[in-house]
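User: Predict MOT14 protein's structure from this.
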Amino acid sequence: MYASREDIGYDFGDDSKVGSKPIKPNPNIDGGWAWMIVLSSFLVHILIMGSQMALGILNMEWLEEFNQSRGLTAWVSSLSMGITLIVGPFIGLFISMCGCRMTAIIGGILNALGWILSAYASNVHYLFLTFGVTAGIGSGMVYLPAVVMVGQYFQKRRALAQGLSTTGTGFGAFLMTALLKYLCTEFGWRNAMFIQGAISLNLCVCGALMRPLSPRALREKYVVRSDSEENRAKALSHSTETIKSNGVLSEEPEKKEEAANEEVLGSVQHIEIGGKSGSRRSMYGLGILKTVSQLTVTVRKGFALWYSSYFGAASLFTNRVFVAFIIWALFAYSSFVIPFIHLPEIVKQYNLSGQDNVFPLTSIIAIVHIFGKVILGIISDLPCISTWNVFLMANFTLVTCILTLPLMQTYVGLAVVCALIGFSSGYFSLMPVVTEDLVGTKHLANAYGIIICANGISALFGPPFAGWIYDITQKYDFSFYIAGLLYMVGIIFLLIQPCIQKKQPKEKSTEEAQV
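Assistant:
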């Protein structure tokens, strides 16, 4: 079974060569400020993903207020969840140009603006624009940097760090469900959204905590990784052939571009020195020219990295296992989102509202989800355990629960299945780790952006599809069955591709031996 990207034969050139002199590890990697990054990411997950998991409360309010079909009303929540994830690849471009900190701060302002404007909605279509699009884009601009920064700051305890940070989703779903219920009861849903918008401004503080690692620290991290994986790489006789066939991102254009950029900035500085004898006005103009030149260089370099990752010779899409991962993501996330959006309505149909008000089923998923992420993260960090195998087992458990949920019509039965859904969905904390193993830290932002984009498409169409099926059949059963079967198709893709990928190098080596 799959263990790391070297086993598959993919290397995107992010690991530096180990020099003869030992390099002292950076104290902020796996410690120090790294834990502040975990705290920042934890709060981001509470405020963004937790709030989205509690949208079932607002969905019922919108159904009563606007008197629209369940399918149409569900689009509001789906747009917010879907766009948060779909914009991932484009947010990767922002990160390449502006960095994680600036991207997250801008996203926090945009998210809060979306919540506040939604308080004045006159119809569902107004919410599509304000809550679905505006708040969704803002959420995406904060969410991706929060995940990427944890991956940059941790090497040895990546799964545990990602697990701790993403437990914010479970805490947030539990807290935000209770908060939105209280606010809607006491102040009405419009004032509740206004207050939530004010709370969302704390995302800007989370973004400010995302202090970037120095380039030297990143190089040190790559050296540590190449040291720890050197023995495995030597054992793979076919790795060199595979790398050549797939193509490694060329460093020559980057070096040439850096040299050209230095020439531009150097010429500006030379002119600035010569202009000291001139007027203050001309120096001010040269200062503006220098700033514009530096900004242009940053934008060009960021766009070049983003473009090469998607469309270059060594594009991420040449990695077949990564492509299978994308196909899985297209089907997986809707199976997790549908229960959160429609469970309050299902409980109402089964006349279980009294028991659900005491302890909501969505809160059960949220609480157990916290433990699932931490426990799965700890298990995956054990040296004798494969992260990939843990990831697959959790997926099998989740798809079984989705297919079983319609058969449960008592509160106890639903509670047990919801608890299993919460625990098994803890694999979300392993997604960044699996992605980083496939493509490397250098391409994590763009690669994970693609994965969450696929998840976003799944979240975008899942709940409206479930609502549409209900409008036809007056039951949610078929929605869960279809979502579960599509999810199973995605898991099969994950199982098939690594096996095919391992066979190909063996076949090539056999042919070469015969020649």
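The first helix runs from residue 5 to 8.
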